[in-house]
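Structure tokens please, single chain.
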Amino acid sequence: MEFLPKEIEDYCRRHSQDELEIYRQLTAETYESCQIPQMLSGPIVGTILQFFVRLTQARLVLEVGMFTGYSALKMAEALDGSGELLTCEIDPAHITIGRNYFQKVPWGKRITVLEGTALESLANLEPSFDLVFIDADKINYLNYYKRAVELIRSGGIIVLDNALWSGRVIMPEDDGSRTIAETNDFIQKDDSVWNVLLPIRDGLMVVQKK
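Here you go.
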């Protein structure tokens, strides 16, 4: 999965806020132990999520799809001491890696892992979240988005990763690509939000609830 020429991506990283060593360690372990390490959101997206946490002055954040915990840790770092982040994850191996790193830093205590299927976890939550980040199985993206709109407060931000799906949304030929394209179309017609699709990494759909 290559989204930009390597030299351009490296230039962007060199001219963006540097990240702490723990994120490099988590990235290295993810690439060593996981079958699809490219699922990691990475430093650019992680730092953008931190910006959204600060801009919304978020106190309560929801993540749908934790993977090994990189983006959860990034967002939790940007929360103030009373902030809380709930993250959904179904894979026990990913949860183990994430929790190991959450225990290494003070802001890891702000993270609560909701184990099991994300749709079941979301059904048991109540409004109102300040920020929702969706980066889970693509076949349920529209379901996740619809539930996120119910859970987010007015003025809150929803961010969907992989909104371009390596360009396959233009001519979708598989279920995942079709669902992401359907979700993008649904958001574009959703009068309850403002939205912009950004060509950052694999595409970030950014939505603000009116």
